[in-house]
Write a structure and sequence with these properties.
The protein is α/β, with parallel strands linked by helices. It is built from 13 helices and 13 strands. Strand 1 and strand 2 form a beta hairpin. It is globular and about 55 Å long. The termini are close together. The relative contact order is 0.12.
Length: about 400
């Protein structure tokens, strides 16, 4: 399992932890993943809600909390830390500037097309910045539009691209009737995006990593994505059931108690389908029950708090704190496979072991020769034992 480069940034392990809000992936989870050689990601969405009296000045609390979490992560790791930002939030520019001021390694940008963002960044922050910009989209068409725009307007391109399939957790970049369309399966959109990125690699002479996301849970999933040509994967649900995940234990246990049939699609107040674990709160909103919304800040550009059935930010934050009677858990399609809470180190060992098992099986099928147990070799390497070799 080789590392990869995002520009001049070398990532030892091709695993990026998904940025999960509100309050699910903060400095604790992000630093733990970074310490294992992957990219740990802090979710900036609604991050100010972890601050006391956040209702007084939510946007200012967002900036304060994001700065704190980045600095806390830096104290825990010298690995690679990223921030996940949603273009749909009303204070996107402020949060982006905080991330750049803190010299974050990578900015992942989703929930919209980041076309004009470079023109909004103060020159003092952009000049000599080593931060990598990575959009997250759900189609090769969207990726091409972003790269064309950046190249024509800024004479540069994003440093990588995340392509997310319809099996992801949380808000999905598809209409509900598109979720099961075979043309949107992860393999198809990864290969299509790689083909599009080749055009921009030829134009610029730069390598553009394509990162696979959405429904990637096991080492076999990682193997498949890398075989399709992806440089790395982004995994969210897998890291929820870790000790270091910043959510309350009740949130993590909702994954352990979840069955496949408990995972449903709801219509979010932001106008997108969302994949969640069904509970009493979810059943109520699916049956048309509304929860009064008293919004003091309007955190999302597309949200009309006077007409929405419930506040998505409050519901997600309540769940993160362990109050699932007032909220719900976002989850990927394969999240019900979780069976126990482990450390991030153990979780990554499991994924890598499964990956090498997939490699072994693939080699045996193609050429039936005896191979050593690669998963054991990796585990020995991980605890300071022998060195593994590239297959």
């Amino acid at each position: 399992m080789n590392g990869f480069n995002i520009g001049d940034l070398r990532v030892k392990l091709p695993i990026i932890q998904g940025g999960m809000g509100v309050g699910i992936s903060l400095s604790g989870l992000a630093s733990a993943v970074a310490n294992e050689g992957g990219i740990g990601v802090i979710s900036a969405v609604g991050i100010g809600m972890i601050e006391e009296n956040y209702r007084g000045n939510f946007k200012e609390k967002n900036k304060i909390a994001l700065r704190k979490e980045i600095r806390k992560a830096r104290l825990k790791t010298d690995g690679i830390i990223g921030v996940n930002l949603m273009l749909a939030v009303t204070d996107f520019d402020d949060l982006l500037n905080v991330a750049l001021e803190e010299k974050i390694d990578v900015v992942f940008m989703g929930a919209g097309l980041p076309l004009r963002i470079l023109s909004t960044i103060p020159a003092s922050l952009l000049e000599n910045s080593k931060t990598k910009f990575v959009p997250k989209v759900s189609s090769a068409k969207a990726a091409k539009l972003i790269f064309q725009y950046w190249l024509s307007k800024y004479n540069r391109i994003p440093d990588a691209i995340v392509i997310e399939g319809p099996k992801a957790g949380g808000h999905l970049g598809y209409k509900e009737d598109e979720l099961k369309d075979s043309k949107n399966d992860l393999e198809s959109i990864i290969k299509e995006t790689i083909s599009v990125m080749k055009e921009f690699e030829n134009l610029t002479g730069k390598n553009i990593p394509v990162i696979a996301a959405g429904g990637i849970y096991s080492g076999q999933d990682v193997y498949n994505a890398l075989e399709w040509g992806a440089s790395a994967v982004k995994m969210g649900s897998k890291f929820v059931t870790t000790h270091e995940c910043d959510a309350d234990i009740a949130f993590k246990e909702s994954y352990l108690n979840c069955k496949k049939e408990d995972i449903v699609i709801i219509k979010s107040p932001v106008g997108l389908p969302g994949r969640v674990i069904k509970n009493k709160f979810v059943e109520q909103i699916m049956n048309g029950l509304t929860k009064p919304v008293n919004c003091p800040w309007k955190c999302l550009k597309t949200c009309n708090f006077k007409t929405v059935p419930f506040c998505i930010a409050e519901a997600l934050f309540s769940a993160a704190k362990g109050d699932l009677s007032q909220g719900f858990s976002f989850i990927g399609e394969k999240g019900s496979l979780a069976t126990s809470i482990k450390s991030v180190k153990e979780t990554i060992l499991d994924v890598v072991s499964e990956y090498y098992e997939a490699v072994t099986n693939s080699v045996i099928i193609k050429s039936p020769i005896a191979l050593p147990n690669l998963s054991n070799l990796y585990q020995l390497q991980a605890i300071g034992g022998i060195q593994t070799h590239k297959i």
